[in-house]
């Protein structure tokens, strides 16, 4: 006896009409779009992900190495995917960190503005010192009532003179063999000189390469805007991409130390969960600093130091090696990554932030 067939609206495949779901794609048969279907599916999907997140988050933070070991062994549906876990927690961290970074950007711009005002004062003082007799102006013994006043006036003169000399020394900067007189450039900018004239004054040549010309362009941009906060913001904006690129590098380091302990993808799974833990810790620290202005520094240091012990216990559980060997390897991995890989990444990020802010 033949049974009637119906067609799935989603995958256009035919199946027996008595089946409640399409055997090819899993969509409910004859499912009509209503408000109940729309919002019920949305809420159910959200809380199903949310439930898996909490089932994964607490083991992630409290049981180092447990999640990657479970995931590699095949238990993958009851826990959040490692890449999804990393992306979710990192997004939360950078959202929270944006409140802190915005204050840092404002503080840097404020500090630069203050330094510029002080440099203008020192330059004016230098002109006065050079035109007038400093001894007669600042140290007139007939006007002094006692020896302490004389000593104070002398100290004030020495401070002003030293400050002016420091400004003069710092007014000529050398960046990648680029010698620039800041005072002359500022004067030309104030006079309305064109960019071409400014580039020539700064020493740029038509034969210079792309990176050198780009460097001149960014230096001139900084002289015009006097905004160091913009450079910092560009640097901070590059951190998420840089951290994502560091993941396979860290996994490769693990592969070097545990070359016989699984495929590269296994080390990458451990790396995703480990970096997710780091961003989770960083998120708690940011929240603590936002709600507690005088957050103790020793607690922050202790919390950051706990990342090493997390790595130690994590590799111990994940790779099934002894405590001593795991401690030695986790120490070597931390030293290699923090002393070589991470500083190099920071330098590259800083250079790219300056070149393209």
UniProtKB/TrEMBL annotation:
Range of residues in the leader sequence: none
Cited InterPro entries: DUF3667 (IPR022134)
Keywords for the protein's UniProt record, in alphabetical order: Membrane, Transmembrane, Transmembrane helix
Residue spans crossing the bilayer: 79-100, 239-258, 270-292, 298-315, 335-356
Keyword Transmembrane in record: yes
Keyword Metal-binding: no
Name by which UniProt lists this protein: DUF3667 domain-containing protein
Species this chain originates from: Gelidibacter maritimus
């Amino acid at each position: 006896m033949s049974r009637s067939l119906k067609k799935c609206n989603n995958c256009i495949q035919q199946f027996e009409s008595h089946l409640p779901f399409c055997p090819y794609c899993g969509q409910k048969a004859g499912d009509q779009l209503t408000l109940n279907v729309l919002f019920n599916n949305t809420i159910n999907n959200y809380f199903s992900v949310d439930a898996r997140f909490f089932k994964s988050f607490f083991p992630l933070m409290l049981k180092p190495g447990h999640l990657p070991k479970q995931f590699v062994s095949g238990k993958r549906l009851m826990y959040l995917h490692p890449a999804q876990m990393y992306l979710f927690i990192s997004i939360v961290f950078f959202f929270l960190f944006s409140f802190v970074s915005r204050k840092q950007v404002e503080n840097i711009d404020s500090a630069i503005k203050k330094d510029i005002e002080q440099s203008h004062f020192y330059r004016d003082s230098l002109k006065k010192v050079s035109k007038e007799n400093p001894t007669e102006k600042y140290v007139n013994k007939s006007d002094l009532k006692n020896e302490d006043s004389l000593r104070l006036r002398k100290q004030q003169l020495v401070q002003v003179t030293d400050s002016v000399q420091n400004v003069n020394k710092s007014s000529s900067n050398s960046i990648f063999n680029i010698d620039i007189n800041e005072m002359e450039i500022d004067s030309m900018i104030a006079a309305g000189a064109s960019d071409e004239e400014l580039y020539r004054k700064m020493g740029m040549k038509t034969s210079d390469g792309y990176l050198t010309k780009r460097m001149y362009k960014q230096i001139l941009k900084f002289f015009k805007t006097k905004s160091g906060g913009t450079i910092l913001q560009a640097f901070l904006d590059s951190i998420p991409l840089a951290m994502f690129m560091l993941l396979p590098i860290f996994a490769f380091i693990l592969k070097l130390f545990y070359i016989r302990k699984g495929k590269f993808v296994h080390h990458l799974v451990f790396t995703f969960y480990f970096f997710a833990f780091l961003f989770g810790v960083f998120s708690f620290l940011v929240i603590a600093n936002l709600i507690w202005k005088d957050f103790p520094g020793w607690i922050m240091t202790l919390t950051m130091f706990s990342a090493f012990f997390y790595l130690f216990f994590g590799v111990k559980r994940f790779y099934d090696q002894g405590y001593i060997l795991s401690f030695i390897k986790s120490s070597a991995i931390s030293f290699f990554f923090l002393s070589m890989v991470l500083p190099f990444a920071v330098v590259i990020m800083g250079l790219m932030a300056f070149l393209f802010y």
